[in-house]
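User: I've been trying to design a sequence by hand for this structure and keep getting stuck. Would you show me what you'd pick, starting by listing the structure so we're on the same page?

Assistant: Good idea, let's start from the same input. This is the structure you sent:
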């Protein structure tokens, strides 16, 4: 059976994640308030930020930055993008 959540990003009931994406309170908050669709979109943006900004997840400041960007994204606020980044176009 599909789990449904009221997605903070899309402001509607959508399919939820199957389990919290991370341990602790932050992972639980995502699990309860973010849809599977929004999480997948965040994963793509997070990957781009990590790669283009050359972030090291070993660094506490990088993890803090990504957490802040994640909540900006989910709350439909402005998020960072890499300067000069041009997404690939589908063929």
């Amino acid at each position: 059976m599909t789990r449904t959540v009221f997605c903070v990003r899309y402001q509607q009931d959508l399919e939820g994640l199957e389990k919290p994406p991370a341990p602790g309170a932050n992972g639980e908050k995502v699990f309860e308030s973010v849809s599977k669709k929004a999480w997948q979109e965040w994963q793509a943006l997070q990957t781009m930020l990590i790669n283009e900004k050359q972030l090291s997840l070993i660094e506490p400041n990088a993890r803090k930055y990504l957490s802040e960007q994640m909540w900006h994204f989910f709350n439909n606020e402005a998020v960072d993008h890499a300067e000069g980044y041009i997404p690939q176009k589908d063929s």
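That's my pick for every position. To get oriented when you compare it with your attempt: The two ends are 35 Å apart (CA to CA). Residues 4-74 form a domain with the YggX-like fold (CATH 1.10.3880.10).
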